[in-house]
Amino acid sequence: MFLYGVVNASPDSLNIDSIVEGPQQALARATQLLADGADGIDLGGQGSTDVATVVPWQAEWERLREVVPALAALGVPTSVDTWRPEVARLALEHGATVINAADGMQTDEMWQVAADFDVPIIVPFLSGPNPRAMEMVQRDPVETIIEFFDARLRDADRFGLRHRCVLDPGTGFAPSNWPWDERYVYQKRVYSNLDAMRVFGLPLYIALPWKETVQHDELLEIVIRNRPEYGRVHYPAKVRSFERRIRAEG
After folding, report:
1. Quick one: how far is CA 109 from the chain centroid?
2. What whole-number distance in Å separates Cα of residue 88 and Cα of residue 159?
């Protein structure tokens, strides 16, 4: 699995180990992530959780302005995690090589940026704060995710970009107000059925579980056994250790 190690230039990340301020801290974290087994870097400047303070796009870019070229100089794939086309465009101009579209690529403006730079696009499923939130679990979350991807890929076709898309089932965006036991059931259902999402013939990208609990470790192992092409990771050494153990088991 190709792993993107997480570097957050936003102070709102739920994982405090990922938070950096400025290019020197970002380089130190990125260097450690790569040494621990990451293959690329995923960089964000605006938190996307409910607890994050939303800042103007100019403030988001100011957090990234010096960090993007510093990380790009490492010579590894670097994705920019944003829902703002202005930020995505500037990051790509300054050395980022992948769009990690926190908006689920739901605007033509983001598709146009991707088309202008002809870069890979990580397309996450987004549940969002909508009336269908509970329905996603009560009927079939996998079916709902596939429907979402089908719609986004029809958008991609208008820009000739289907072949550039990488699909993320977006479990990190499941309704955040659910208690953990419901989120656990949701995530286990999705992770256990990743093969269903290969109907589009496109690679898969998973935001890998990182918390230190038995259930999170169970979810991580399910993901690894289903062999997605890409993962977003806070602790790559742990993921590589899981991979080695699973390979050894045959």
Report:
1. 19
2. 17
Buried b or exposed e, range 68-77, using 16+ CB within 10 angstroms? bbbbbeeebb
How many angstroms separate the CA atoms of 204 and 146, rounded?
Answer: 12
Hey, where are the domains in the chain?
Answer: 2-249
Q: Which of 25, 145, 12 is nearest to 81 (CA)?
A: 12
CB atoms near residue 195 (< 10 Å): 11
pLDDT tens-digit profile of 35-74? 999 999 999 999 877 677 889 999 999 999 999 999 999 9
Over the stretch 131-157, which tens digit does the pLDDT of each residue have? 455 555 566 889 889 999 999 999 999
Distance CA 166, CA 200 (A): 10
Give the separation between CA 43 and CA 192, rounded to whole angstroms: 28
Question: Could you tell me the two tokens for 43?
Answer: 């960089």
* Of residues 132, 137, 112, the one with CA closest to residue 188: 137
Looking at domain 2-249, its CATH class is alpha beta
pTM for the whole structure: 0.93
What whole-number distance in Å separates Cα of residue 164 and Cα of residue 98?
10
Strand partners, 79: 42, 98
- Strands 121-124 and 230-233 turn out to be unpaired
What is the C-alpha to C-alpha distance for residues 95 and 70, in angstroms, rounded to an integer? 9
